[in-house]
User: What shape does this take?
Amino acid sequence: MVEERVRVALFVTCLVDLFRPSVGFAAVKLLEEAGATVEVPLAQTCCGQPAYNSGDRESAKRIAEKVIDAFEGYDCVVAPSGSCAAMIRCHYPQLFADDPAKRARAEALAARTYELLSFLVDQRGLCRVNARWLRRAAYHDACSGLRELGIKEQPRRLLASVEGLSLSELRGAETCCGFGGAFSVKYPEISEKMATDKEADIVASGAQAVLCGDLGCLLNIAGRLSRLGSSVEARHAAEVLAGMAEDVPPIGVPR
Amino acid sequence: MQLQARDFPQNARAALGEERLQRALSRAPSGFALKRAIAVERLPEFESLRERGRAIKDETLAHLDFYLERYEENVVASGGKVHWAKTAEEARQAVLRICRSVGAKSVTKGKSMVGEEVGLNACLEANGITPIETDLGEYIIQLRGEPPSHIIAPAIHLVKEDVAESFRRAHDRLDAARSLEEVRQLCAEARAVLRPLFLAADVGITGANFLVAETGSSIIVTNEGNGDLTQLLPRVHIVMASLEKVVPTLEDAATLLRLLARSASGQEFSAYTTLSTGPRRAGDEDGPEEYHVILLDNGRSALLGGEFQDMLRCIRCAACLNHCPVYGAVGGHAYGSVYPGPMGAVLSPALFGLEGSAHLPNASTFCGRCESVCPVKIPLPKMMRHWREREFERRLGPRPYRVGLQLWAFLALRPALYHAVFGLLARLLGWAGAGRGRFRALPFLSGWTGARDMPAPEGKTFHRLWTERRRAR
Assistant: This one.
């Protein structure tokens, strides 16, 4: 593991902030255990993807500027989401392609921004965690993390070190779950079909739990699982890795 | 059957309820994807080939005028003729003129997406000329009066029972008691029916996968051999191609061919790869007396130099369709465009206008699988997003959604207000959902809760809890 301390700003993400604060606290715990000093800039809201992917480029740029203002001055920015991290890493520089000064700031932030699980493994050299969870679980690769940030092995490597946890692979592990932000409400029937296919793959894998690094996908998968009456639990992988899975019920299950 | 892109949501809903279509979709596109993965695995240099493919296409597009003129010179030098068609109508008229000049009564057709794009069959029929599709898939959908549902496998939406029914209806002079249960029997019947039609045709029309500037050749790839019969037997061969099909050299075409078959169907090479250069020369044993190329623009040159230029790299392999979860869910017809799937979501608004096809670039989760398999690395999600930007600028989207987005953006730019509002929302929803831990219905979110529960928030936002814990320390 890398020894030197880093000052990490946690990009909480709007979904974790609203729906599942426990993911944020799990991220803080993991980061601190990996030798980071974690701060949470209070001026943060959202990465701007809803505007960006809806074609409202101007709003996306204004939000991106706010994020850049709020997160400059830290060694690293870490988000418990591949989707939000990829927005900052891959898309912020493109937003300011025609403005060299802003582009330079966007690129500087992009270069220091990471998704949580890949940050722990690739930047902090974490190989194992101190956690125990007796489950058979499947990991769903969220699309942005997988294809824009190359996150595939890192979460599996960390999860493999959780005592009592056995991992099974999903048949369509790299197939989208049908969330896609506004897509899920604009084209609900198609989204439903994709989520149903995902549910079938999860059930076929024999897993008792489905884990993922993105809360968007998890809300979709958990929502479909519970609507179909499945008892498979859905969680952000960070909760399991931080040893906090027993502290909070699975997504969509009352306390 | 005439589906419209503007009805995409309704088309998609209907498609999701069609049992046979869903059965067909559960096998075919994913089958192509699997074969592609195996073929790619077996070629270590595939990634560098993709880079080469992209470079070839970019170089061609950067000097498209030069390569097109060079191509035309070489077609003329080999005895052929190029007909430049700015619009679909000009392309149809050019074909019609050639057909009339030889008094054509029937034309055989190899599969041509450009032919589909310009609506050639309807035009020929309206002018008393019988078009006969000879690609098996195209033949089947022609009998059914349907447009293709896939750019390389036009009848991929059908199961063999559908085909048997269509054959019984169309081939009504054959023994009604014959067995058509096996694919082999269906193929044999199509072959027997088509053979005399090949021989009787006056004109053969094919598409082109590539046009080679340095030789004036057109190249088609097929697996059935129907393309060869279409272009060799009749007196006249017409090639229909869009102008971005040109590549500088045979060497370039060979590179792209290595990408094409693997990306399309997981084959190393198609069963037939056929080069045509001009009409029959003195001493040739066969070949057409006339060789024409219809070179279609139809809005493509307007994409040069703009944010959609990369789309002109497309070599129509359909890998993006085969790997798209949305295409896999609803099939090609739901898109209501000749070009479905991710490549169609970018191309259709460019060719047919954004107003009527605005749904198509929206009907994507941006999962990015299309871009990851594209043999020429077209950034399809990025260009779909560009169309969404054009849609937003022109205020074409639904008003409630636009207003909601503006309201959300207003909040997102004001952190203090945002945290106050979302803190309240978290408490309200947390309180209301505490009993079940989820909602079966929510106002304004019926699209979500129609098929999914909405997990309830924990009650306090992260920011609130974080601030509380900091204070407590």
